[in-house]
Amino acid sequence: xxxxxxxxxxxxxxxxxxxxxxxxxxxxxxxxxxxxxxxxxxxxxxxxxxxxxxxxxxxxxxxxxxxxxxxxxxxxxxxxxxxxxxxxxxxxxxxxxxxxxxxxxxxxxxxxxxxxxxxxxxxxxxxxxxxxxxxxxxxxxxxxxxxxxxxxxxxxxxxxxxx
Length: 163
Description:
Elements: H1 18-29, H2 38-67, H3 74-104, H4 113-124, H5 133-162
């Protein structure tokens, strides 16, 4: 079976398997290459998760007040997830652009977070920090909304079985 392994936003790398990707990276860049972009990924994902939870919780509270109920229908939970995903994805988009640039090494002299941010801004301007926002927002929003709606339904099911 043929797989393409890459940073989806870049389209730069095409490996046939995870093993091939790991071997190639370790051989050409050394073991350190396997961790390229870890700090950039953490700088994107930690805020995304915190913001998502904050926005999701707030959206759920608003929806429960509006419907005057303690539990929401799955469609409303999903809608709260969409709102939270949109807001979180938009806010963390610049960090995603930086992460992708660090991991792909597409910018000259960008070996860390601050040099990469500086290079993106100097070479492409502030608008570049929002490059690729539509696909990322769509993917992250739908994925997170589905996951949280599913999680909430499982909690309700478990709660109803044991109480």
